[in-house]
Write a structure and sequence with these properties.
Blueprint: E1 2-6, E2 13-17, H1 28-31, E3 39-44, H2 59-72, E4 78-83, H3 85-96, E5 103-107, H4 117-127, H5 134-143, H6 151-160, H7 163-175, E6 188-194, H8 199-211, E7 216-220, H9 227-230, H10 232-240
Parallel strand pairs: 2-3, 2-4, 4-5, 5-6, 6-7
Antiparallel strand pairs: 1-3
Amino acid sequence: MHLERHGEVSRPRLLLLHGGGVAGWMWTPLREHLDPRTRLLIPDLPGHGRSAAEPYTSHEDAVRELETILEGDGPGPTTVVGFSLGAQLTVMLAAQRPDLVDRVVVISAQTLPTPAPDLTLALLRSTSGLARVRWFARLQAKELFIPPALLDDYLRTSAAMTSRSLVAAVGENIRFTIPDGWRAFPGRASVLAGSREKPLMRRSAQALHRALPGSTWEIVPDAGHGIPLQQPQLLARKLEQR
């Protein structure tokens, strides 16, 4: 798994997990609002970006790789911020390895399964080649709130992602449910969703909050499924809160 490191090693770690179909570059707007000394770990998840040659197989496999990264990076407090698919991985990390994670920010995590997932995946298989067609990728970029400065990064990521990785990642995403260990997570947890997201996403955020009573829950006004790209300054302020 490709990994970028930034900032000063003496500072607490911040692990940023991107969503499906994008890559670590999606955190560029957020980084512009963070102290440049902030210690960042930014992977490209399997099947995505500079990890495109490594197929996405399952959330469990991805989490195991993330655990290895944190274990190898040494001890210390870690905040994990995840968006969409990355938010589901964040929940799993908190549930399975609370010894590695002391704070999570979960953004737009679907936690209620999509009805008829097999039908959804069959349609995806039949149309997955469109992701590599430039005009279609541009339309998708608009739906995902990709800013013009990052459009080329998105087009390269879309073109490099295989149908196998796309179907596997989406299949895991739409079948995801809240893991039992989440209810016992002892650290700080913030759950966010956009006011303009699909009702399923807002209900998912509420369900995640209810499952962990000590968590905070917020619907971000005027945001769709793209809070880190639409409102990076707001997200930076939340991360700076101790």
